[in-house]
Design goal:
Layout lengths: L1 H49 L4 H5 L13 H8 L8 H32 L5 H10 L9 H10 L7 H4 L6 H11 L4 H9 L4 H12 L1 H16 L3 H6 L8 H11 L4 H33 L4
């Protein structure tokens, strides 16, 4: 008994020192993360502060971090400016959100269906079709621009939302990501559902989709971000100013207000903030989906 008590007494300083070391390491880790986050967000913070400054304050040297007077009218002016033919920033924001959300939802639905077939079903030529699909990812997007434009013109979809929604309804990369994720789902769950009388579609809807939610949210975020930042395809297919998306509209806005940096920064914020908000809310699912997709090949 005396030996045990002495042993505990001798080990106490060591365990206390180990606990303090772990606490210090945890604090240093969080401090490092905060510093890295501030460094990464510094350009965005400076640009955001510039939206409340006068143009003279932005180009002044040395630059000031905070504006002398918070000019909220910069945001109001950009938001209410009418460029003719119904072309306003609310309209451009609506166009961009509709195309980005619509394309992301279509990708989630159709890519998950294709991934379920590749990962869980057996049919002749599955491996060859899957390989051919992956090979299509090597084709540069610029090669398909002219054929795609000719096709959309023939079917009358130019200057409509469909010209971007239909080509963006499916993507080989997202099918591959979901396929890798679904391969890690235990087959026993499907077998149990099949024995209970579930059809193939019910298994997909009630078993696979709930389990694949992290990966599907990852696909949604990736596609939303890709379509939100798209420039070449919207520039090619959407002709009238009231149909433009933000990236195309901002390029025109910069030409018209190239001498007013504060207004240009406001226009850029309209394009950047929604994506940052989306990623902030769903970053956990995005990281979870990416990590699970690589568990099983």
């Amino acid at each position: 008994m005396a030996v045990t008590t002495a042993s505990r007494t001798l080990n106490l300083p060591s365990s206390e020192q180990s606990r303090r070391t772990r606490n210090i390491q945890t604090v240093l880790k969080y401090v490092l993360l905060v510093v890295i986050g501030l460094v990464a967000l510094t350009p965005f913070i400076l640009a955001f502060m510039g939206t409340f400054k006068t143009d003279a304050e932005i180009i002044a040297y040395p630059p000031a971090f905070l504006p002398k007077a918070w000019l909220t009218q910069n945001w109001v002016k950009v938001w209410t400016t009418d460029f003719g033919q119904g072309a306003t920033f609310p309209r451009w924001l609506f166009n961009t959100a509709l195309i980005a959300v619509g394309s992301a939802l279509l990708q989630v639905v159709f890519c998950s269906m294709a991934a379920y077939a590749y990962a869980r079903l057996r049919f002749p030529g599955k491996d060859a079709i899957f390989t051919f699909m992956l090979t299509s990812m090597m084709i540069p997007g610029a090669i398909t621009l002219i054929p795609g434009y000719v096709l959309m013109t023939k079917i009358g979809f130019t200057n409509t939302y469909w010209s971007l929604l239909i080509p963006g309804a499916i993507g080989a990369g997202n099918i591959f990501l979901l396929t890798q994720f679904l391969k890690a789902v235990p087959h026993e769950l499907e077998e149990a559902a099949f024995m209970d009388g579930a059809t193939q579609f019910q298994i997909y809807k009630d078993v696979v989709i709930p389990l694949a939610r992290p990966a599907m949210l990852t696909v949604f975020i990736l596609q939303f971000q890709g379509m939100w930042n798209a420039f070449m395809a919207p520039l090619l297919y959407l002709n009238t100013p009231n149909m433009w998306v933000l990236n195309v509209a901002i390029s025109t806005f910069q030409q018209q207000y190239k001498a007013q940096w504060n207004l240009t920064l406001v226009a850029a914020m309209f394009n950047a903030i929604p994506v940052l908000i989306l990623f902030a809310f769903f970053s956990r699912y995005y990281i979870e989906g990416i990590s699970y997709a690589g568990l099983k090949g």
